[in-house]
Amino acid sequence: MEKYFLDAQDxxxxxxxxxxxxxxxxFENQSFGINKGEFICIIGHSGCGKSTILNVLAGLDEATSxxxxxxxxxxxxxxxxxxxxxxxxxxxxxxxxxxxxTFAVRARWPSWRKEQVLHHSMKYLDMVGLAGAESRxxxxxSGGMRQRVSIARAFAIEPKLLLMDEPFGAxxxxxxxxxxxxxxxxxxxxxxxxxxxxxxxxxxILLADRILLMTNGPYAHIAESVIIDIPRHRERTExxxxxxxxxxxxxxxxxxxxxxxxxxxxxxxTQVEPRETRKRVYPPNVNPxxxxxxxxxxxxxxxxxxx
Amino acid sequence: xxxxxxxxxAVLSMVLLVFFLGVWELANQPPEAKEALTEYERLMGGSEPxxxxxxxxxxxxxxxxxxxxxxxxxxxxxxxxxLQLLYSIKRVMFGYFLAALIxxxxxxxxxMSPLMHKALDPFIQVLKPISPLAWMPLALFILKDSEVxxxxxxxxxxxxxxxxxxxxxxxxxxxxxxxxxxxxxxxKLRTAVTVILPAAAPxxxxxxxxxxxxxxxxxxAAEMLVxxxxxxxxxxxxxxxxxxxxxxxxxxxxxxxxxxxxxxLARATRLVQYEE
Lengths: 307, 276
Fold this sequence. Notes:
The complex is a heterodimer.
Chain A: E1 6-15, E2 24-34, E3 39-43, H1 50-58, E4 65-70, E5 73-74, E6 82-85, H2 97-108, H3 114-127, H4 143-156, E7 161-165, H5 173-190, E8 193-197, H6 201-207, E9 210-214, E10 222-227, H7 236-239, H8 245-262, E11 285-286, H9 302-306
Parallel strand pairs in A: 3-8, 3-9, 6-7, 7-8, 10-11
Antiparallel strand pairs in A: 1-2, 1-4, 4-5, 9-10
Chain B: H1 5-27, H2 39-43, H3 56-68, H4 81-112, H5 114-127, H6 136-143, H7 146-171, H8 175-183, H9 188-226, H10 231-240, H11 244-272
Protein backbone atom coordinates (compact mmCIF):
# COMPACT_ATOMS: atom_id res chain seq x y z
CA MET A 1 0.00 0.00 0.00
CA GLU A 2 1.27 3.40 -0.87
CA LYS A 3 2.31 5.81 1.86
CA TYR A 4 0.42 9.05 2.00
CA PHE A 5 1.95 12.29 3.26
CA LEU A 6 -1.19 12.81 5.29
CA ASP A 7 -2.92 9.61 6.26
CA ALA A 8 -6.29 9.71 7.99
CA GLN A 9 -7.07 6.27 9.34
CA ASP A 10 -10.50 5.04 10.43
CA UNK A 11 -11.73 8.40 11.67
CA UNK A 12 -14.99 8.30 13.58
CA UNK A 13 -16.74 11.26 15.14
CA UNK A 14 -19.64 10.73 17.46
CA UNK A 15 -21.31 13.54 19.31
CA UNK A 16 -22.71 12.61 22.72
CA UNK A 17 -26.45 12.13 22.91
CA UNK A 18 -28.57 15.16 23.59
CA UNK A 19 -30.99 14.53 26.47
CA UNK A 20 -33.08 11.50 25.69
CA UNK A 21 -31.76 11.05 22.15
CA UNK A 22 -29.24 8.77 20.49
CA UNK A 23 -25.64 9.77 20.09
CA UNK A 24 -25.01 11.26 16.67
CA UNK A 25 -22.35 9.61 14.55
CA UNK A 26 -21.33 12.10 11.91
CA PHE A 27 -18.90 9.85 10.08
CA GLU A 28 -17.47 6.47 10.83
CA ASN A 29 -14.28 4.60 9.97
CA GLN A 30 -13.31 7.15 7.41
CA SER A 31 -9.88 6.77 5.85
CA PHE A 32 -8.25 8.89 3.18
CA GLY A 33 -4.85 10.13 2.17
CA ILE A 34 -3.22 13.21 0.71
CA ASN A 35 0.05 13.24 -1.19
CA LYS A 36 2.65 15.94 -0.77
CA GLY A 37 1.96 18.95 -2.97
CA GLU A 38 -1.54 17.85 -3.79
CA PHE A 39 -4.53 20.17 -3.87
CA ILE A 40 -7.50 18.29 -2.47
CA CYS A 41 -11.05 19.58 -2.37
CA ILE A 42 -13.82 17.94 -0.42
CA ILE A 43 -17.43 18.37 -1.46
CA GLY A 44 -20.59 17.26 0.27
CA HIS A 45 -23.89 18.55 1.54
CA SER A 46 -24.13 20.58 4.73
CA GLY A 47 -24.02 18.48 7.85
CA CYS A 48 -21.99 15.66 6.39
CA GLY A 49 -19.06 16.45 8.65
CA LYS A 50 -16.63 18.17 6.28
CA SER A 51 -15.80 20.87 8.77
CA THR A 52 -15.40 18.32 11.52
CA ILE A 53 -12.90 16.39 9.39
CA LEU A 54 -11.01 19.62 8.72
CA ASN A 55 -10.96 20.49 12.41
CA VAL A 56 -9.68 17.03 13.24
CA LEU A 57 -6.91 17.43 10.66
CA ALA A 58 -6.12 20.83 12.15
CA GLY A 59 -6.01 19.36 15.63
CA LEU A 60 -8.70 21.77 16.83
CA ASP A 61 -11.13 18.92 17.31
CA GLU A 62 -10.54 15.33 18.29
CA ALA A 63 -11.92 12.30 16.49
CA THR A 64 -13.80 9.87 18.68
CA SER A 65 -11.58 7.16 17.31
CA UNK A 66 -9.00 6.81 14.57
CA UNK A 67 -5.76 8.65 13.95
CA UNK A 68 -4.35 11.17 11.54
CA UNK A 69 -0.72 10.72 10.57
CA UNK A 70 1.21 13.53 8.95
CA UNK A 71 4.70 12.79 7.75
CA UNK A 72 4.47 9.56 9.73
CA UNK A 73 3.69 11.32 12.99
CA UNK A 74 0.37 11.43 14.77
CA UNK A 75 -1.54 14.69 14.78
CA UNK A 76 -2.21 15.69 18.38
CA UNK A 77 -3.46 19.20 18.94
CA UNK A 78 -3.04 22.23 16.70
CA UNK A 79 0.34 22.99 15.23
CA UNK A 80 2.07 25.56 13.07
CA UNK A 81 2.69 22.71 10.63
CA UNK A 82 -0.95 22.96 9.66
CA UNK A 83 -2.20 26.39 8.68
CA UNK A 84 -5.93 27.06 8.71
CA UNK A 85 -7.98 29.54 6.71
CA UNK A 86 -11.43 29.89 8.24
CA UNK A 87 -14.58 30.87 6.39
CA UNK A 88 -15.02 34.00 8.42
CA UNK A 89 -11.45 35.20 7.95
CA UNK A 90 -10.62 35.14 11.65
CA UNK A 91 -8.38 38.15 11.61
CA UNK A 92 -7.70 39.92 14.87
CA UNK A 93 -9.73 43.11 14.41
CA UNK A 94 -7.70 45.33 16.73
CA UNK A 95 -4.47 45.13 14.74
CA UNK A 96 -3.60 46.07 11.17
CA UNK A 97 -3.52 43.58 8.32
CA UNK A 98 0.28 43.54 8.38
CA UNK A 99 0.38 42.96 12.13
CA UNK A 100 -2.06 40.09 11.65
CA UNK A 101 0.59 38.45 9.50
CA THR A 102 3.65 39.36 11.57
CA PHE A 103 1.79 37.90 14.54
CA ALA A 104 1.77 34.52 12.80
CA VAL A 105 5.28 34.81 11.39
CA ARG A 106 6.70 35.64 14.81
CA ALA A 107 4.90 32.64 16.30
CA ARG A 108 6.41 30.44 13.58
CA TRP A 109 9.97 31.73 13.79
CA PRO A 110 10.42 33.25 17.27
CA SER A 111 14.14 33.78 16.75
CA TRP A 112 13.76 35.96 13.67
CA ARG A 113 14.83 39.58 13.77
CA LYS A 114 12.20 42.29 13.46
CA GLU A 115 13.18 43.29 9.91
CA GLN A 116 13.18 39.69 8.82
CA VAL A 117 9.65 39.17 10.16
CA LEU A 118 8.51 42.38 8.50
CA HIS A 119 10.13 41.54 5.18
CA HIS A 120 8.69 38.04 5.10
CA SER A 121 5.20 39.27 6.03
CA MET A 122 5.24 42.01 3.41
CA LYS A 123 6.26 39.49 0.78
CA TYR A 124 3.10 37.48 1.36
CA LEU A 125 0.89 40.54 1.68
CA ASP A 126 2.29 41.61 -1.66
CA MET A 127 1.60 38.16 -3.08
CA VAL A 128 -2.13 38.56 -2.46
CA GLY A 129 -2.04 42.06 -3.93
CA LEU A 130 -2.47 43.95 -0.71
CA ALA A 131 0.74 45.97 -0.62
CA GLY A 132 -0.42 49.45 0.35
CA ALA A 133 -3.19 48.22 2.64
CA GLU A 134 -0.82 46.97 5.32
CA SER A 135 -1.72 49.57 7.92
CA ARG A 136 -5.47 49.16 7.54
CA UNK A 137 -7.46 47.33 10.17
CA UNK A 138 -9.65 44.41 9.07
CA UNK A 139 -12.80 46.50 9.55
CA UNK A 140 -11.49 48.90 6.93
CA UNK A 141 -11.10 46.11 4.37
CA SER A 142 -13.72 44.49 2.15
CA GLY A 143 -14.62 40.84 2.63
CA GLY A 144 -12.42 39.82 -0.28
CA MET A 145 -9.45 41.76 1.06
CA ARG A 146 -9.89 40.27 4.50
CA GLN A 147 -9.85 36.78 3.10
CA ARG A 148 -6.70 37.68 1.15
CA VAL A 149 -5.01 38.72 4.39
CA SER A 150 -6.15 35.47 5.95
CA ILE A 151 -4.72 33.48 3.01
CA ALA A 152 -1.48 35.46 3.14
CA ARG A 153 -1.20 34.69 6.85
CA ALA A 154 -1.70 30.98 6.26
CA PHE A 155 0.83 30.81 3.44
CA ALA A 156 3.32 33.01 5.30
CA ILE A 157 3.91 30.44 8.03
CA GLU A 158 4.72 27.93 5.28
CA PRO A 159 2.82 25.06 6.86
CA LYS A 160 3.26 21.49 5.68
CA LEU A 161 -0.46 21.31 5.15
CA LEU A 162 -2.87 24.15 4.47
CA LEU A 163 -6.47 23.63 5.53
CA MET A 164 -9.19 25.87 4.11
CA ASP A 165 -12.75 25.78 5.39
CA GLU A 166 -14.93 27.18 2.61
CA PRO A 167 -12.66 30.17 2.28
CA PHE A 168 -14.72 31.82 -0.45
CA GLY A 169 -18.16 30.93 0.89
CA ALA A 170 -18.93 34.45 2.07
CA UNK A 171 -17.66 36.26 -1.02
CA UNK A 172 -19.52 37.47 -4.09
CA UNK A 173 -18.98 35.63 -7.37
CA UNK A 174 -16.67 38.21 -8.95
CA UNK A 175 -14.35 38.51 -5.96
CA UNK A 176 -14.42 34.77 -5.57
CA UNK A 177 -13.16 34.28 -9.14
CA UNK A 178 -10.33 36.72 -8.68
CA UNK A 179 -9.16 35.24 -5.41
CA UNK A 180 -9.39 31.71 -6.79
CA UNK A 181 -6.94 32.69 -9.49
CA UNK A 182 -4.63 34.34 -6.96
CA UNK A 183 -4.80 31.26 -4.79
CA UNK A 184 -3.88 29.06 -7.74
CA UNK A 185 -0.96 31.31 -8.59
CA UNK A 186 0.40 31.20 -5.06
CA UNK A 187 -0.17 27.47 -4.84
CA UNK A 188 1.82 26.92 -8.03
CA UNK A 189 4.64 29.09 -6.67
CA UNK A 190 4.81 27.45 -3.27
CA UNK A 191 3.91 23.84 -4.01
CA UNK A 192 1.83 23.86 -0.87
CA UNK A 193 -0.25 20.82 0.11
CA UNK A 194 -3.85 21.99 0.44
CA UNK A 195 -7.04 20.47 1.82
CA UNK A 196 -10.03 22.63 1.08
CA UNK A 197 -13.76 22.44 1.77
CA UNK A 198 -16.02 23.92 -0.85
CA UNK A 199 -19.64 23.84 -2.03
CA UNK A 200 -18.78 25.06 -5.48
CA UNK A 201 -18.28 22.35 -8.11
CA UNK A 202 -16.60 24.66 -10.64
CA UNK A 203 -14.27 26.01 -7.96
CA UNK A 204 -13.27 22.48 -7.02
CA ILE A 205 -12.56 21.48 -10.63
CA LEU A 206 -10.51 24.60 -11.21
CA LEU A 207 -8.36 24.17 -8.12
CA ALA A 208 -8.14 20.52 -7.22
CA ASP A 209 -5.98 17.58 -8.24
CA ARG A 210 -8.49 15.29 -6.61
CA ILE A 211 -11.96 15.87 -5.21
CA LEU A 212 -13.24 13.82 -2.32
CA LEU A 213 -16.99 13.26 -2.53
CA MET A 214 -18.83 12.83 0.70
CA THR A 215 -22.24 11.24 1.13
CA ASN A 216 -24.93 12.77 3.30
CA GLY A 217 -24.75 12.33 7.04
CA PRO A 218 -25.20 10.85 9.55
CA TYR A 219 -22.78 7.98 9.04
CA ALA A 220 -21.34 9.96 6.16
CA HIS A 221 -18.37 8.59 4.29
CA ILE A 222 -16.14 9.60 1.45
CA ALA A 223 -17.53 7.60 -1.43
CA GLU A 224 -15.04 8.49 -4.15
CA SER A 225 -11.87 10.35 -4.85
CA VAL A 226 -12.37 11.95 -8.24
CA ILE A 227 -9.27 12.68 -10.26
CA ILE A 228 -9.34 15.96 -12.11
CA ASP A 229 -7.64 14.99 -15.33
CA ILE A 230 -7.10 18.50 -16.64
CA PRO A 231 -3.53 19.72 -17.07
CA ARG A 232 -2.12 22.67 -15.18
CA HIS A 233 -1.79 25.62 -15.56
CA ARG A 234 -5.56 26.04 -15.62
CA GLU A 235 -7.38 29.24 -16.54
CA ARG A 236 -10.94 29.83 -15.50
CA THR A 237 -11.97 30.85 -19.01
CA GLU A 238 -10.18 28.04 -20.85
CA UNK A 239 -10.74 25.10 -18.58
CA UNK A 240 -14.44 24.91 -19.52
CA UNK A 241 -13.45 24.12 -23.12
CA UNK A 242 -11.28 21.20 -22.14
CA UNK A 243 -12.87 17.91 -23.29
CA UNK A 244 -12.59 16.44 -19.80
CA UNK A 245 -14.33 19.33 -18.08
CA UNK A 246 -17.94 18.40 -18.60
CA UNK A 247 -17.61 14.67 -17.96
CA UNK A 248 -16.02 15.57 -14.62
CA UNK A 249 -18.53 18.26 -13.84
CA UNK A 250 -21.49 16.05 -14.73
CA UNK A 251 -20.10 13.28 -12.59
CA UNK A 252 -19.78 15.63 -9.60
CA UNK A 253 -23.21 17.18 -10.04
CA UNK A 254 -24.81 13.78 -10.48
CA UNK A 255 -23.16 12.65 -7.26
CA UNK A 256 -24.32 15.67 -5.32
CA UNK A 257 -27.88 15.57 -6.64
CA UNK A 258 -28.49 11.83 -6.64
CA UNK A 259 -25.85 9.49 -5.38
CA UNK A 260 -24.89 11.39 -2.21
CA UNK A 261 -28.37 10.49 -0.97
CA UNK A 262 -28.48 6.95 -2.34
CA UNK A 263 -25.11 6.02 -0.90
CA UNK A 264 -25.96 7.42 2.50
CA UNK A 265 -27.28 4.34 4.19
CA UNK A 266 -27.11 3.95 7.93
CA UNK A 267 -26.39 0.26 7.34
CA UNK A 268 -22.87 1.40 6.57
CA UNK A 269 -22.24 0.96 10.29
CA THR A 270 -19.31 -1.36 10.50
CA GLN A 271 -19.41 -2.12 14.17
CA VAL A 272 -19.93 -5.79 13.43
CA GLU A 273 -16.34 -6.36 12.55
CA PRO A 274 -13.69 -5.63 15.17
CA ARG A 275 -11.29 -2.86 14.30
CA GLU A 276 -8.23 -5.10 14.40
CA THR A 277 -9.37 -7.50 11.70
CA ARG A 278 -11.22 -5.11 9.45
CA LYS A 279 -9.42 -4.00 6.34
CA ARG A 280 -8.91 -0.26 6.10
CA VAL A 281 -10.81 1.09 3.11
CA TYR A 282 -9.62 4.18 1.24
CA PRO A 283 -12.06 5.78 -1.19
CA PRO A 284 -11.49 4.49 -4.73
CA ASN A 285 -9.96 6.81 -7.28
CA VAL A 286 -12.34 7.60 -10.08
CA ASN A 287 -11.63 9.36 -13.35
CA PRO A 288 -14.89 10.43 -14.98
CA UNK A 289 -12.96 11.60 -18.02
CA UNK A 290 -11.59 8.13 -18.67
CA UNK A 291 -14.44 7.32 -21.07
CA UNK A 292 -13.60 10.36 -23.12
CA UNK A 293 -10.04 9.17 -23.39
CA UNK A 294 -11.41 5.77 -24.46
CA UNK A 295 -10.07 3.96 -21.46
CA UNK A 296 -12.17 1.00 -20.51
CA UNK A 297 -11.68 1.25 -16.79
CA UNK A 298 -13.11 4.17 -14.84
CA UNK A 299 -11.45 3.24 -11.60
CA UNK A 300 -7.73 3.68 -11.97
CA UNK A 301 -4.73 3.66 -9.80
CA UNK A 302 -3.44 7.01 -8.72
CA UNK A 303 0.20 6.09 -9.24
CA UNK A 304 -0.46 5.09 -12.84
CA UNK A 305 -2.37 8.30 -13.34
CA UNK A 306 0.52 10.35 -12.12
CA UNK A 307 3.06 8.62 -14.33
CA UNK B 1 -27.60 79.37 11.19
CA UNK B 2 -27.06 76.92 13.99
CA UNK B 3 -27.18 73.83 11.90
CA UNK B 4 -25.01 71.53 13.92
CA UNK B 5 -26.74 69.43 16.51
CA UNK B 6 -23.98 70.09 19.04
CA UNK B 7 -24.33 73.84 18.73
CA UNK B 8 -28.10 73.72 19.05
CA UNK B 9 -27.86 71.42 22.06
CA ALA B 10 -25.35 73.77 23.70
CA VAL B 11 -27.68 76.72 23.25
CA LEU B 12 -30.58 74.75 24.70
CA SER B 13 -28.45 73.69 27.67
CA MET B 14 -27.53 77.32 28.36
CA VAL B 15 -31.14 78.43 28.12
CA LEU B 16 -32.25 75.72 30.54
CA LEU B 17 -29.44 76.60 32.96
CA VAL B 18 -30.23 80.30 32.94
CA PHE B 19 -33.95 79.63 33.30
CA PHE B 20 -33.44 77.18 36.17
CA LEU B 21 -31.01 79.42 38.05
CA GLY B 22 -33.20 82.46 37.41
CA VAL B 23 -36.29 80.80 38.87
CA TRP B 24 -34.24 79.59 41.82
CA GLU B 25 -32.80 83.04 42.44
CA LEU B 26 -36.08 84.96 42.10
CA ALA B 27 -38.28 82.53 44.00
CA ASN B 28 -35.85 82.41 46.88
CA GLN B 29 -35.41 86.06 47.88
CA PRO B 30 -35.09 86.84 51.61
CA PRO B 31 -38.21 88.47 53.00
CA GLU B 32 -38.06 92.26 53.16
CA ALA B 33 -37.37 93.60 56.62
CA LYS B 34 -40.68 95.13 57.74
CA GLU B 35 -39.11 97.51 60.18
CA ALA B 36 -35.69 98.47 61.39
CA LEU B 37 -33.83 95.73 63.16
CA THR B 38 -33.93 95.76 66.88
CA GLU B 39 -30.75 95.62 68.82
CA TYR B 40 -31.48 91.99 69.64
CA GLU B 41 -32.08 91.01 66.02
CA ARG B 42 -28.86 92.68 64.92
CA LEU B 43 -26.97 90.76 67.59
CA MET B 44 -28.57 87.52 66.45
CA GLY B 45 -27.32 88.00 62.89
CA GLY B 46 -30.10 89.52 60.83
CA SER B 47 -33.77 89.65 60.26
CA GLU B 48 -34.35 86.23 58.76
CA PRO B 49 -36.78 84.25 60.84
CA UNK B 50 -35.90 81.02 59.00
CA UNK B 51 -32.79 79.57 57.37
CA UNK B 52 -33.02 79.49 53.56
CA UNK B 53 -31.44 77.40 50.88
CA UNK B 54 -28.79 79.74 49.47
CA UNK B 55 -29.30 81.48 46.16
CA UNK B 56 -27.21 80.76 43.06
CA UNK B 57 -25.59 84.16 43.35
CA UNK B 58 -24.41 83.45 46.90
CA UNK B 59 -23.10 80.05 45.83
CA UNK B 60 -21.35 81.68 42.89
CA UNK B 61 -19.64 84.17 45.18
CA UNK B 62 -18.47 81.38 47.48
CA UNK B 63 -17.31 79.33 44.49
CA UNK B 64 -15.17 82.18 43.21
CA UNK B 65 -13.68 82.70 46.66
CA UNK B 66 -13.02 79.00 47.23
CA UNK B 67 -11.68 78.25 43.78
CA UNK B 68 -9.33 81.21 43.81
CA UNK B 69 -7.47 79.58 46.69
CA UNK B 70 -8.39 75.90 46.64
CA UNK B 71 -5.39 74.46 48.46
CA UNK B 72 -5.09 76.46 51.67
CA UNK B 73 -4.76 74.59 54.95
CA UNK B 74 -5.63 76.38 58.17
CA UNK B 75 -5.99 73.46 60.50
CA UNK B 76 -8.23 70.39 60.58
CA UNK B 77 -11.54 72.17 60.14
CA UNK B 78 -10.51 74.75 57.56
CA UNK B 79 -8.97 73.37 54.42
CA UNK B 80 -9.44 74.46 50.80
CA UNK B 81 -11.94 72.59 48.63
CA UNK B 82 -9.17 71.44 46.28
CA LEU B 83 -7.28 69.89 49.17
CA GLN B 84 -10.39 68.06 50.40
CA LEU B 85 -11.09 66.73 46.91
CA LEU B 86 -7.49 65.56 46.59
CA TYR B 87 -7.81 63.56 49.81
CA SER B 88 -10.90 61.86 48.47
CA ILE B 89 -9.40 61.23 45.04
CA LYS B 90 -6.29 59.75 46.63
CA ARG B 91 -8.36 57.28 48.65
CA VAL B 92 -10.47 56.37 45.65
CA MET B 93 -7.36 55.76 43.55
CA PHE B 94 -5.72 53.54 46.15
CA GLY B 95 -8.80 51.40 46.68
CA TYR B 96 -9.66 51.36 43.00
CA PHE B 97 -6.29 50.28 41.68
CA LEU B 98 -5.90 47.71 44.43
CA ALA B 99 -9.26 46.32 43.32
CA ALA B 100 -8.18 46.31 39.66
CA LEU B 101 -4.99 44.51 40.59
CA ILE B 102 -7.03 41.66 42.03
CA UNK B 103 -10.24 41.81 39.99
CA UNK B 104 -8.64 41.60 36.54
CA UNK B 105 -6.45 38.50 37.10
CA UNK B 106 -9.23 36.76 39.03
CA UNK B 107 -11.68 37.77 36.30
CA UNK B 108 -9.36 36.16 33.73
CA UNK B 109 -9.28 32.99 35.79
CA UNK B 110 -13.05 32.88 36.15
CA UNK B 111 -13.57 33.71 32.48
CA MET B 112 -11.11 31.14 31.16
CA SER B 113 -11.84 28.24 33.48
CA PRO B 114 -15.36 26.84 33.74
CA LEU B 115 -14.30 25.11 36.97
CA MET B 116 -13.23 28.36 38.63
CA HIS B 117 -16.36 30.02 37.32
CA LYS B 118 -18.62 27.49 38.96
CA ALA B 119 -16.54 27.39 42.16
CA LEU B 120 -16.26 31.16 42.69
CA ASP B 121 -19.68 32.21 41.47
CA PRO B 122 -21.53 31.62 44.80
CA PHE B 123 -19.01 33.79 46.66
CA ILE B 124 -19.29 36.57 44.12
CA GLN B 125 -23.08 36.44 44.12
CA VAL B 126 -23.27 36.74 47.91
CA LEU B 127 -20.55 39.36 48.38
CA LYS B 128 -21.58 41.56 45.47
CA PRO B 129 -24.89 42.91 46.83
CA ILE B 130 -23.44 43.88 50.23
CA SER B 131 -23.47 47.65 50.65
CA PRO B 132 -19.84 48.70 50.91
CA LEU B 133 -20.65 50.77 54.01
CA ALA B 134 -21.83 47.65 55.80
CA TRP B 135 -18.20 46.56 55.83
CA MET B 136 -17.16 49.74 57.62
CA PRO B 137 -17.47 48.59 61.26
CA LEU B 138 -15.66 45.35 60.52
CA ALA B 139 -12.99 47.22 58.59
CA LEU B 140 -12.50 49.72 61.41
CA PHE B 141 -12.21 46.92 63.93
CA ILE B 142 -9.78 44.82 61.95
CA LEU B 143 -7.73 47.56 60.31
CA LYS B 144 -7.87 49.97 63.29
CA ASP B 145 -7.38 52.99 61.03
CA SER B 146 -10.08 55.16 59.52
CA GLU B 147 -7.94 56.10 56.53
CA VAL B 148 -7.17 52.48 55.62
CA UNK B 149 -10.78 51.51 56.31
CA UNK B 150 -12.16 53.98 53.80
CA UNK B 151 -9.66 52.73 51.22
CA UNK B 152 -10.87 49.21 51.98
CA UNK B 153 -14.48 50.24 51.45
CA UNK B 154 -13.57 51.68 48.06
CA UNK B 155 -11.69 48.49 47.26
CA UNK B 156 -14.60 46.24 48.14
CA UNK B 157 -17.15 48.28 46.19
CA UNK B 158 -15.11 48.65 43.01
CA UNK B 159 -13.92 45.08 42.78
CA UNK B 160 -17.24 43.52 41.67
CA UNK B 161 -18.06 45.34 38.46
CA UNK B 162 -14.43 44.90 37.31
CA UNK B 163 -14.36 41.23 38.24
CA UNK B 164 -17.68 40.42 36.64
CA UNK B 165 -17.01 42.37 33.47
CA UNK B 166 -13.55 40.90 33.06
CA UNK B 167 -14.90 37.38 33.50
CA UNK B 168 -17.69 38.07 31.04
CA UNK B 169 -15.40 39.72 28.47
CA UNK B 170 -12.84 36.94 28.71
CA UNK B 171 -15.50 34.25 28.50
CA UNK B 172 -17.11 35.86 25.46
CA UNK B 173 -13.97 36.07 23.32
CA UNK B 174 -14.80 34.62 19.90
CA UNK B 175 -13.89 30.99 19.45
CA UNK B 176 -12.34 31.88 16.08
CA UNK B 177 -9.79 34.11 17.80
CA UNK B 178 -8.95 31.46 20.35
CA UNK B 179 -8.51 29.04 17.45
CA UNK B 180 -6.05 31.45 15.85
CA UNK B 181 -4.02 31.35 19.04
CA UNK B 182 -4.23 27.57 19.12
CA UNK B 183 -3.25 27.01 15.49
CA UNK B 184 -0.30 29.33 16.03
CA UNK B 185 0.79 27.33 19.06
CA UNK B 186 0.63 30.25 21.47
CA UNK B 187 1.07 29.29 25.11
CA LYS B 188 -1.59 30.02 27.71
CA LEU B 189 0.05 33.21 28.90
CA ARG B 190 0.75 34.54 25.41
CA THR B 191 -2.80 33.75 24.36
CA ALA B 192 -4.08 35.67 27.37
CA VAL B 193 -1.90 38.69 26.64
CA THR B 194 -1.95 38.88 22.83
CA VAL B 195 -5.43 37.61 22.02
CA ILE B 196 -7.77 37.52 25.01
CA LEU B 197 -6.71 40.77 26.69
CA PRO B 198 -7.17 42.99 23.62
CA ALA B 199 -10.36 41.15 22.69
CA ALA B 200 -11.86 41.62 26.15
CA ALA B 201 -10.37 45.07 26.81
CA PRO B 202 -13.48 47.08 25.90
CA UNK B 203 -15.62 45.00 28.27
CA UNK B 204 -13.00 45.19 31.02
CA UNK B 205 -12.75 48.96 30.65
CA UNK B 206 -16.53 49.23 30.81
CA UNK B 207 -16.39 47.42 34.14
CA UNK B 208 -13.65 49.79 35.31
CA UNK B 209 -15.81 52.72 34.30
CA UNK B 210 -18.76 51.43 36.31
CA UNK B 211 -16.42 50.83 39.26
CA UNK B 212 -14.96 54.32 39.32
CA UNK B 213 -18.49 55.74 39.34
CA UNK B 214 -19.50 53.59 42.29
CA UNK B 215 -16.22 54.31 44.12
CA UNK B 216 -16.84 58.04 43.82
CA UNK B 217 -20.39 57.63 45.14
CA UNK B 218 -19.18 55.57 48.07
CA UNK B 219 -16.22 57.71 49.14
CA UNK B 220 -18.51 60.62 50.06
CA ALA B 221 -20.59 58.43 52.34
CA ALA B 222 -17.52 56.71 53.79
CA GLU B 223 -15.87 60.01 54.64
CA MET B 224 -19.02 61.29 56.29
CA LEU B 225 -18.73 58.27 58.57
CA VAL B 226 -15.04 58.29 59.35
CA UNK B 227 -14.48 62.05 59.25
CA UNK B 228 -11.16 63.83 59.34
CA UNK B 229 -10.53 64.85 55.76
CA UNK B 230 -12.02 64.51 52.32
CA UNK B 231 -14.94 65.94 50.43
CA UNK B 232 -17.49 63.74 52.23
CA UNK B 233 -16.29 65.01 55.58
CA UNK B 234 -16.30 68.55 54.21
CA UNK B 235 -19.98 68.31 53.24
CA UNK B 236 -20.91 66.94 56.65
CA UNK B 237 -18.77 69.47 58.48
CA UNK B 238 -20.37 72.39 56.62
CA UNK B 239 -23.79 70.97 57.45
CA UNK B 240 -22.82 71.00 61.10
CA UNK B 241 -21.58 74.56 60.64
CA UNK B 242 -25.00 75.39 59.13
CA UNK B 243 -23.21 76.70 56.05
CA UNK B 244 -25.62 75.54 53.36
CA UNK B 245 -23.91 77.64 50.72
CA UNK B 246 -20.76 75.58 51.17
CA UNK B 247 -22.82 72.38 51.17
CA UNK B 248 -24.40 73.17 47.82
CA UNK B 249 -21.05 74.27 46.43
CA UNK B 250 -19.37 71.04 47.48
CA UNK B 251 -22.25 68.98 46.05
CA UNK B 252 -21.54 70.70 42.76
CA UNK B 253 -17.84 69.93 43.03
CA UNK B 254 -18.55 66.25 43.75
CA UNK B 255 -20.58 66.13 40.55
CA UNK B 256 -17.86 67.78 38.49
CA UNK B 257 -15.07 65.54 39.76
CA UNK B 258 -17.25 62.45 39.22
CA UNK B 259 -17.89 63.58 35.67
CA UNK B 260 -14.18 64.08 35.02
CA UNK B 261 -13.33 60.61 36.36
CA UNK B 262 -15.99 59.09 34.14
CA UNK B 263 -14.74 61.01 31.11
CA UNK B 264 -11.22 59.73 31.66
CA LEU B 265 -12.40 56.12 31.68
CA ALA B 266 -14.63 56.75 28.67
CA ARG B 267 -11.61 58.03 26.76
CA ALA B 268 -9.55 55.02 27.80
CA THR B 269 -12.37 52.72 26.64
CA ARG B 270 -12.33 54.40 23.25
CA LEU B 271 -8.60 53.71 22.95
CA VAL B 272 -9.07 49.95 23.24
CA GLN B 273 -12.32 49.78 21.29
CA TYR B 274 -12.15 47.92 18.01
CA GLU B 275 -14.51 47.43 15.15
CA GLU B 276 -15.20 43.99 13.80
